[in-house]
């Protein structure tokens, strides 16, 4: 046998042994240094416990892997996940500690495959000054003034346009409809692209390819979802470069009428990001803002079809808003003041996000040795704060598996629950689009409950993939109703 062939067969074994030795060394190093690393198991060489950690389960529970480990080791345990020695935290206090010390004791540590595809200037992976800068651009872009002036009207427009296409008694996947609305809203506000136009459709297809790759197994071979996503990313970046050039040209010619109203105009005016940086920002906002919000809307449709009392109370709230507008002689379009009246709707939003666990956990890495509750987290180890653990903790939320929006009516009296509630993260890296997301869902609920009764056309449930996913896209059947004279 030639040495090359021998090496070919030996290589995987050597790799496994090397990684096993590395994991062992990390552990041994910890022990030698007298560190009190939390209990747990490092699992298989190379793979660790990644497969068990990623095993599918309904997103309204923690899944067998977490439940077993928590029973055996407690809320803080060690493991080997995504190729790194890792502390998994189901402890709300440690989760908050990690997020509040972002940039000091901890930094983001997404698996290399995710950070490569999102881009090196994606906000999810950036740290320090550049992160602060990109965050401030995004937060300004989605500040209350813009929500009032642009996003509210646009949300209502795209939602009503979409709901008009719903056909009675013809089942359709609710997730797909929610995706259309949130995608259209984002591309209109980021690039002034209109729904249905060929360029928008082209971008949507590329983005879908990109999105599949972000959550796919990171195998960069011809034909894999990951490879297709890297290609889609390159094409999207080229498209953006072209749009930037066109916009700059139009500005020079004085023919740019709408530029200032979208993110591209805002970036060209207020910053000096290049096309790749803008591309990473755009992909981050599309990724952060499109998949999450459409999943939240779909989850609300799912939870509400099983809670007629909540639908009834929503209807009362929204009929009152419409009637009050009529009495005041106002046009029917929702205003910011109307949105602020949607108090019970906000309880439905909060409960949907708690029970739906859209972002179940995030990835961080310790910059230095950190001590917490008597345990040591060694420098360089990953830490995975699992937000869902606190959201589903029976000592915090009574009957946590129950969809109970009314529990949020008394939340101000119980700050413990607020501290345990992190659907949008916390601290330096908290969600830049949280106000936009809450508004989009509430406006969607307004038009949904006033115009439709709905039921599941087939059984389906949300499973915890990278995001909660309905295997059939949540097929629903609707009936039009008319509650407003
Ligand atoms: C229900 C919908 C949403 C949920 C549950 C959600 C959740 C989150 C969470 C948990 C984080 C923190 C990630 C971390 O700590 O590593 C985050 C960050 C972020 N989100 Fe959202 N998000 C939602 C909607 C949106 C929307 C609509 C946008 C914008 C259009 C957006 C943009 C972002 C951005 C840019 C970041 C990164 C912030 C940073 O790194 O400082 N999100 N989101």
Automatic annotation (TrEMBL):
Keyword Acetylation recorded: no
Keywords: Heme, Iron, Lipid biosynthesis, Lipid metabolism, Membrane, Metal-binding, Monooxygenase, Oxidoreductase, Signal, Steroid biosynthesis, Transmembrane, Transmembrane helix
Statement: the UniProt record of this protein carries the keyword Transmembrane: yes
Cell compartment(s), UniProt: Membrane
Signal peptide: 1-21
Membrane topology: Single-pass membrane protein
Name of the protein this chain belongs to: Cytochrome P450 90B1-like
Organism, as annotated: Phoenix dactylifera (Date palm)
Gene: LOC103707598
């Amino acid at each position: 046998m030639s040495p090359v062939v021998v090496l070919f067969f030996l290589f995987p074994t050597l790799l496994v042994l090397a990684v096993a030795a590395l994991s062992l060394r990390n552990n041994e190093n910890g022990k030698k240094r007298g560190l009190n690393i939390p209990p747990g198991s490092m699992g298989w060489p190379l793979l660790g416990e990644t497969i068990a950690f990623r095993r599918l389960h309904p997103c309204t529970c923690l899944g067998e892997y977490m439940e077993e480990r928590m029973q055996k080791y407690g809320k803080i345990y060690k493991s080997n996940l995504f190729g790194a020695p890792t502390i998994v935290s189901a402890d709300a206090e440690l989760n908050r500690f990690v997020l509040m010390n972002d940039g000091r004791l901890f930094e983001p540590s997404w698996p290399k495959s995710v950070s490569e595809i999102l881009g090196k200037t994606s906000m999810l992976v950036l740290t320090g000054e550049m992160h602060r800068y990109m965050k401030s651009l995004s937060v300004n872009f989605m500040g209350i003034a813009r929500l009032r002036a642009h996003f509210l009207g646009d949300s209502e427009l795209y939602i009503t346009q979409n709901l008009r296409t719903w056909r009675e008694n013809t089942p359709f996947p609710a997730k797909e409809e929610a995706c259309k609305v949130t995608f259209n809203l984002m591309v209109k506000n980021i690039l002034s692209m209109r729904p249905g136009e060929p360029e928008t459709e082209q971008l949507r297809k590329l983005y879908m390819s990109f999105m599949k790759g972000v959550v796919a197994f990171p195998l960069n071979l011809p034909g894999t979802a990951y490879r297709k996503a890297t290609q889609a990313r390159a094409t999207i970046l080229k498209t953006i470069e072209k749009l930037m050039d066109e916009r700059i040209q139009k500005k020079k010619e004085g023919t740019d009428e709408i530029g200032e109203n979208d993110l591209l105009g805002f970036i060209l005016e207020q910053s000096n990001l290049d096309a790749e940086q803008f591309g990473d920002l755009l992909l981050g906002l599309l990724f952060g803002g499109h998949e999450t919000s459409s999943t939240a809307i779909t989850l609300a449709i799912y939870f509400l079809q099983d809670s007629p009392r909540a639908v009834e109370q929503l209807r009362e709230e929204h009929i009152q808003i419409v009637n009050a507008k009529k009495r005041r002689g106002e046009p029917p379009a929702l205003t910011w003041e109307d949105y602020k009246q949607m108090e019970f709707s906000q309880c439905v939003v909060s409960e949907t996000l708690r029970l739906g666990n859209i972002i179940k956990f995030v990835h961080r890495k310790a910059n230095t040795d950190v001590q917490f509750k008597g345990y040591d987290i060694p420098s360089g180890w990953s830490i995975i704060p699992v937000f869902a653990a606190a959201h589903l903790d029976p000592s915090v939320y009574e009957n946590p598996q129950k969809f109970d929006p009314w529990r949020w009516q008394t939340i101000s009296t119980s700050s413990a629950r607020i501290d345990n509630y992190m659907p949008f993260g916390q601290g330096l890296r908290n969600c830049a689009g949280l106000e936009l997301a809450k508004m989009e869902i509430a406006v969607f609920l307004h038009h949904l409950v006033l115009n439709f009764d709905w039921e599941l056309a087939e059984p389906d449930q949300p499973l915890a993939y990278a995001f909660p996913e309905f295997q059939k896209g949540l097929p629903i059947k609707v009936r039009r109703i008319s509650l407003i004279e």
